[in-house]
Amino acid sequence: MEGSIAISTLLGCSPQQRPLGPRDGATCDRDCRAVLGGGLAERSRSPERSVCLRSHVRGRCEGVAVNELRPVRRPVAIDLFAGAGGLSLGFESAGFDVLSAVEYDPVHAATHLFNFPRADVVCADIASLRGEDLIRSARKGWSAHYPEKDWDGVVDAVIGGPSCQGFSAMGRQDASDERNRFILEFVRLVAEVRPRAFCMENVPGLLDARFDEIRSRALRALSAAGYEFVGHEDVLHAEDFGVPQRRRRVMILGVLRGEGSPQPPKPTGARVFTVADALEGLPELKRRAPVTTTDSLRLSTRALRNYLDARGDFIEFADVKGRAIDGLGHPRDFQPQKLHGYRSTLHSASSVARFRATAQGAKEPISRAYRLAWDQPALTLRAGTGRERGSFSAARPLHPVEPRVVTAREAARLHSFPDWFRFHTTNWHAHRQIGNSVPPLLARAAAIALLAALESHPQASALGRACDSDERLLSFSPTEAARFFEVAEDQVPKRRRTAMAPLQGSAA
């Protein structure tokens, strides 16, 4: 197929190795039933505006009109480079069902599985997978979501944030970094799966001139695969979308030609949320004994009352208490009297003294830890470096008034995660998972933009609460996580050194 050769050439791989999916150039099947709003739709009674949404790329159509089609299922997505699940959560909260998630690091994959127990989680190198593997995984995920229903096999969105260390200013922007190839692997899988739309997130460094070649190859391949896209020249600011953090990101949104016209995510138009907005209702720790054997904190009666009474704008907008106000997200079991993400980081007396002397908005000179300011958004939360750059942990910001670094739960709030969302029980893995993730509110804005382009109006979740996930998933050692997913242990980054020597005795 000519389309297959063009895309394979652009991506630097042979069509035999990277075949396009069966939907490329195929005539419309299933009695020319069309897809709209994320689901199979019945024949319209008004055939005068006929177009087939399964075969429009080749212009073949058997007379189904799109103006009166009735959606019968929620849109579905596959998440590549899924991490702990920030992008998955944002898309789910907008009305998508994330059927499949691919994550190379088994510790992160286990965390994703805990938070999305109905998704099929594939722990593998993205380069080893083909489109048919993703469809097979998505079918498993569909069966877990809707065991009594058949799936039509149509993927509405492929989403993902390919590894960005090679493009990141924090990662020294290395054009030769072999991880840059993940951009092309993402594009390859989009071309093979042929979703109705895609979302690719990355750092602003992707737009740097030194990455023109790889960026151009990716965009040409997406165009050859039949996609129109936006966002490839723009930088979004997370604080414009309700995230209480200054974080700049590129968000490329694409839609198959004929499906709709993609538009960039729309900012909320509301005021910028601050650290004070984000941390409202969370308990103070200065009079509490350190939490070192678990990451959970049981609230006193007074602390629980303060937590439940917190109803600020951010608390409601981000739905941090998991009430699923609009009904689009799937229900989760959350018991607020016991909060997670509170394993203590133990500091030396000299560190505590230095932290106490550091003003809000300033950097502590020795640890280089930035002290959060109550009346400002947080600065960008970082994940640290991978093992190929020494496995440094990033400097965690200091709490605005307490002489300590923030907890994982506080960092999660600053990233717009709800309080029911869980991370690994160790500090190093938890903060890596948060810093590497797409803020859910930013992801939700991208999902809403794609739904608008596809003219899709998702139904509210009809699922009951998922069965309890296995708590052991959140405390796996690298060896245990690798064994659970039956992969090699060397897929897990090992922590060798720490960038913050003054933070001694960390219970990580």
Short description:
The protein is α/β, with parallel strands linked by helices and 508 residues long. The chain has helices at residues 2-11, 86-94, 106-115, 131-145, 181-193, 212-224, 275-279, 301-309, 313-317, 349-357, 408-414, 427-436, 440-453, 478-485; strands at 35-36, 39-40, 76-80, 97-102, 120-122, 157-160, 197-202, 227-230, 236-237, 248-256, 296-298, 338-340.
Describe the structure.
The protein has 508 residues and is an alpha/beta fold. It has a domain at 278-432: DNA Methylase, Chain A, domain 2 (Alpha-Beta Complex). It has 14 helices and twelve strands. It has helices at residues 2-11, 86-94, 106-115, 131-145, 181-193, 212-224, 275-279, 301-309, 313-317, 349-357, 408-414, 427-436, 440-453, 478-485, and strands at residues 35-36, 39-40, 76-80, 97-102, 120-122, 157-160, 197-202, 227-230, 236-237, 248-256, 296-298, 338-340. Helix 3 packs across helix 14 (478-485). The chain is globular, with a radius of gyration of 23 Å.
Task: From the structure above, extract its key features.
508 residues; alpha/beta; DNA Methylase, Chain A, domain 2; eight-stranded mixed beta sheet; 14 helices; 12 strands; 27% helix; 10% strand; globular; disordered N terminus; disordered C terminus
The CATH class of the domain at 278-432 is: Alpha Beta
Mean pLDDT: 82
CATH topology of the domain at 278-432: DNA Methylase, Chain A, domain 2
Strand content: 5-15%
Radius of gyration: 23 Å
* CATH structural architecture of the domain at 278-432: Alpha-Beta Complex
Q: How helix-rich are the residues, as a percent range?
A: 25-40%
- Number of E-type strands: 12
So what's the overall shape?
A: globular
**Structural class per helix/strand content?**
alpha/beta
Q: Which sequence of SSEs, written as H and E, runs from N to C?
A: HEEEHEHEHEHEHEEEHEHHEHHHHH
- Enumerate how many helices there are, as a single number: 14
End-to-end gap: 53 Å
Task: Tell me about the largest β-sheet.
Answer: 8 strands, mixed
* Low-pLDDT regions: 1-5, 14-71, 497-508
CATH superfamily of the domain at 278-432: DNA Methylase, subunit A, domain 2
Family: Belongs to the class I-like SAM-binding methyltransferase superfamily. C5-methyltransferase family.
Active site: 164
Pfam family, one: DNA_methylase
EC number: 2.1.1.37
